[in-house]
Amino acid sequence: MASNFNSTTPAAAAGTKNVSFATDGAGNDSASYIAPADVNVFTAGLNTNNQRMWRQQMTRACKFPSGAANSKAEGRVASTGTVVYSISKNGTPFATVTFTTSATGVWAQASDATFAAGDLIEVDGPATADGTLADVSINLQGFLV
What we know:
By secondary structure, the protein is mostly beta strands. It has 2 domains: 1-34, no CATH class; 39-144, Sandwich (Jelly Rolls), CATH 2.60.120. The chain is 0% helix and 46% strand. A hairpin with a 5-residue loop joins strand 1 and strand 2.
C-alpha cells in the first residue's frame, strides 16, 4: 500500500498512534485516522464565585480519555490557595483541574468520558474564586469516535 501517512504522522501522543492501516482477506487496504476533539476554554482576568466558564453542546461523538494525559491548564497569575474547576458531562462531573498556589493546574480524571452528539460539556469554577488566579486557560484533549 502506497501512502503519505505512517502510524506516527501527524504526531500522536507519546505511546499512541493516530493512523492505523489494515488489509482485509481480499487484499483491500484501509486506513483509519483518530481526529482530535479538543475543548479549549479561556477566561480573561479574575474569575467570579460559581462562574460557569464554558458550556457547549457537542456536535459530534467524542471521547476524553481517563487521566487526561495531554490536557493542560494554566493561569497567567498563580493562585494563592487551592482552586478546583469541575468538568461535567450533562451535569455530572467527570474531571477536575486543581491549582494549589500555582499557575499550573493538575488534572484528575478517573475514567473515559464518552460524549454523543447533543451531550453537554461544561467547565465550572469553584464556589469561592481565588483572589489572584487570573487569565485561566483550560484545554481538554480528546478525539472523535
